[in-house]
Please model this.
Amino acid sequence: MKKIAILLSAALLTTGCTYAQKGQTCDPAKESKYKSLTNPNAAGGYGAVITKDKAMTVAQLEKEMKEQNVSEKKNVKISGKVNSVCKMKGCWMEVADGKGGTMRVRFKDYAFFVPRDCENQTAYLHGTARYDTTSVAMLKHYAEDAGKSKKEISAITQPEVSLTFLADGVLFDKK
Model:
């Protein structure tokens, strides 16, 4: 059984940058398409046009969700520092949660990406927050996309339950 799990994990890792939401893959031949998905919108953001007003921190969002005893919250706006971003094409990012950790952010319908150099910028995001379980295979995939070492990737052995965010719009503070 353990051999099957190892083979399955290896197969998942070798398929490239497979994205769980739409089954999209990183294909260097499609690089021009990826770049078009990072074109800014009319307000200079990505995806739906949003504003910075009334954004809460990730810590405030978590507190509010716990107080309301909900596992999902729609139509919310948050802000936070971008700790990391997918180096392959900008199809996900991690935002600081204010407690030393991060919250994974993906983009609704895989319809837009963010610049691969947006680390350390403050991001404003609009969308849906929810607690979700990320499989070991997907965690390893994210680590690979982030450029982690083989040693760091192989150390991932447990799924992770965490607050995640599906953004329909992103705006960054100007550099």
The chain has a mean pLDDT of 82. The first helix runs from residue 2 to 14. The radius of gyration is 16 Å.
